[in-house]
Fold:
Amino acid sequence: MKLLKLQRTMARAVMQPLTESERMQRHAPDGRSMRTYAASFIKPNDRLTSFERLEIYNRQYWFRLLSSMTEDFPGLRSVLGSRRFEAMCKAYLVDCPSRSFTLRNLGSQLESWLRKHSEWGGEKQGLALDIVRLEWADVEAFDGKAEPALQSEDLGAVDQATLRLKLQPYISLLDLQYPVDDLLLEVRKDDDGTDFASNAFQERRKRKRVQAVARLKPAKIFLVVHRIDNSVYFRRISAEEFAILLALRKGKTLARAIELALRKTSIQPNERAASVQQWFTNWADLGWFCQTANF
Amino acid sequence: MPANKFNGFTEYGIGIGLRAPHYDHILTRKPVVDWFEIISENFMIDGGRPLQILDQILEQYKVVQHGVSMYFGSAEKPNREHLRRLKELVKRTKTPWLSDHLCWGSVDGRYTHDLLPMPYTFEAAKLTAQKVHEVRDFLEIPLAVENVSSYAEFHVSEMTEWEFLNEVVERADCGILLDVNNIYVSSQNHNFDPLEYVNNIPAERVAQIHIAGHSKYRKYILDTHDHPVIDPVWKLYERAVQRAGHTATLLEWDDSIPSFQEVHDEALKANRFLASTLLAKAV
Structure:
């Protein structure tokens, strides 16, 4: 068997989902019995059959990838429940196997995939999508690129009509239907106590999570996922602030972004200039704007 | 050999893997450690805390890069984005050599994130060596390939694992990262004599040695890096340094990671065997 053919044959088996009891399936991807399939390219030894040897890799693959998904999406796990989350991850990974050399990117397609597979979110689909967006934004903010930042004084004498400000690449702007930032922080706080392994503790923790999800009511929020001194933070902002930042990210000029954002605002006309100025000062102080050729 | 062209003519001593639970201890206590090995992929990113930590470590310690997803043995071409990011990191760390595994793990652009075993064929050796060449030409740095632990063997294999390793490194003219724990694990899983393996590798190509612990199951052994090094593995290490000399040695401990001190103390046990190589040299 040539190298490429052997690798395709083995990879198909390794990436095939495990059974409910976390064993290798009895049937191979090509319909043959897995015993025959495994024996066609793997030698048995005095202790293990070809099937059992291949199964070691099959199980390692799924344990490793599911563990990575669990680490990256603890919030979604809380929303769906552990069993449903694991089943969803399996379905996702079958449809979207890793195409990156790093596990960091494993969840990069999850939001778009979940949108098309609303059966996993069910009644909680809106909440599930919101938390996935937040958790992926968190991954991006953790190790995304940072450009040299503009300082607030740089914004003093700019021509608003032509200036296009660029946001830091690591920043995500999220318009969410649920206050999932609170939920995620609660889930994480909860996870900090993992050294405690008693059943009673695990039960209490599970109950607490279920309660946290159950009491989460829809409430539209606008969130910036950013970082300060390399720690990730979630910052809630107003609808107007969100609209300005979104317009800037889409490449609108400063003047156009402000105009679009304030079109339907309830902020009094005499307070608008001061508000806008304060926002930009805050954002610049947080290092959200990149230096561009204009500065 | 202590210093050779495969490890950039360096004389590194005993290092440990740089792992997140130890960051705080290392940065605040500044323990004396010969060198740290980093998993390249953890730092092939655009920014954020991991690179900040790495830069702080680089200010005080020697760092060597070890990769887990180059997949020299995969039949497909190297991933250009992977290579670009890896080269960027090489410039940052100034690693004198770089290692990755003699295995495959991706096919048709799909990644298993595992170190899958090679079929020991001449075709595979030729393709693997070509890929090692290509990667080294791009990175412009000495490369060493590491033997992996394996749990399966293929019908198509035409030689032993050590013969395959020799075939690849001779063709590619690259170094070996000799993992004596992996040799032990595979020897138990495939019923061969691990000493025969150590005795048959080209000692002059050994750039670095890995030691680690593993987990024993009823019918096989798994390379879990979550235990101290066992005596039979130290025996292989002793033989390896008898043959290769005072070689850069690294302890891997990746799961159920104990305190920094415990990991470092375990690594420093290698000194017992390295000292004898120095004595032999003196005599």
Remarks:
- The CA atoms of residues 14 and 249 of chain B lie 5 Å apart.
- Chain B has one domain: 5-282.
- Chain B touches chain A at residues 41, 44-52, 69, 74-76, 79, 81-82, 104, 106-114, 116, 119, 121, 123-124, 127, 151-156, 189-191, 219-220, 222 (CB under 8 Å).
- The two ends of chain B are 17 Å apart (CA to CA).
